[in-house]
Design a protein that fits this description.
α2 crosses α12, α5 runs antiparallel to α6 and α7 crosses α8. This protein has two domains: about 120 residues; about 120 residues, Rossmann fold (3-Layer(aba) Sandwich). It is of the alpha/beta class and about 250 residues long. The longest helix is centred in the C-terminal third of the chain and has 16 residues. It is globular and about 50 Å long. The protein contains twelve helices and eight strands. A four-stranded parallel sheet has the order 2-1-3-4, sandwiched between helices. Strands 6-5-7-8 form a four-stranded parallel sheet.
């Protein structure tokens, strides 16, 4: 079901994010395919760079504002901007408020933030989609990224995945626990970060899922990097890729 009155028009912009651009181009492809399936026309502004979160997490406020101002100029706030990343979406929605709290262009940042959506949140709460077509036969452990707390991202992902024929979402222990990445936290405190990641992998894979799913590529990168160093392998997919594969199985 589409409730198109929730969002004006179906012309959207894709903010690929740094990790998507550098490591996870398949997530960008899946996101475009998913958005086009629900009737959106997708634009990808070429001038886009970063949301500014690395500088923000490091306490470099001047660089944060410089990158954020560029982002606000690059995207048209009259159209929805869609991000396949819970952390980048959170940065724009909440980090920009802090970064520009005493700046003249706070209102510009807030206007852009109001037009920005994480992908699953947009599908469910922006377009009113209650279920997803197709089939995907898999047991899935879905990692809940810390930056999605206080948003509708995780709940929206669960709603979409649960509706797909053949999907079984696995409940696992300590599902609220952080994966340990935390952006620059993993650089400043690598030992703690890796220890947290190892524990998270144990919990996510305890029931031997077919897929470890995530709504954030940073978490995927962190967990898969630790697993590779341990010689452990598990299949991982961003939620957009699961939605895309379900669509293709319906054809």
């Amino acid at each position: 079901m589409l409730a198109t009155d929730r969002v004006t028009g179906t012309q959207v912009q894709l903010m690929m994010t740094c990790l998507c651009d550098t490591f996870f181009d398949s997530v960008a492809q899946a996101t475009v395919e998913v958005l086009e399936h629900v009737g959106c026309t997708v634009e990808v502004p070429e001038a886009q760079t970063c949301c500014g979160q690395p500088a923000f997490n490091s306490g470099d406020w001047d660089s944060t504002r410089k990158v954020a101002r560029h982002t606000c100029r690059t995207f048209d706030s009259s159209k929805p901007t869609i991000l396949p990343s819970g952390s980048c979406s959170h940065m724009i929605s909440h980090g920009y408020d802090l970064a520009f709290e005493k700046e003249d262009d706070l209102s510009t940042a807030q206007t852009f933030a109001k037009s920005s959506w994480e992908l699953c949140d947009f599908l469910v709460n922006g377009l009113g989609i209650e279920s997803w077509p197709g089939r995907f036969d898999a047991k899935i452990s879905l990692h809940r990224s810390c930056h999605t707390r206080g948003t509708q991202t995780y709940q929206s992902a669960v709603k979409l995945l649960s509706s797909i024929e053949g999907v079984e979402l696995i409940e696992f222990d300590e599902s609220e626990q952080c994966c340990g990445f935390g952006g620059t936290f993993s650089v400043a405190y690598p030992n703690t970060s890796v220890s947290m990641g190892k524990l998270k992998i144990e919990k996510l894979t305890a029931d031997k899922p077919d897929i470890v799913g995530a709504v954030d590529m940073a978490c995927m990168m962190h967990l898969s990097g630790i697993a590779n160093k341990q010689g452990r392998q598990f299949n991982k997919l961003h939620v957009s890729e699961i939605l895309m594969k379900a669509l293709r199985n319906a054809k």
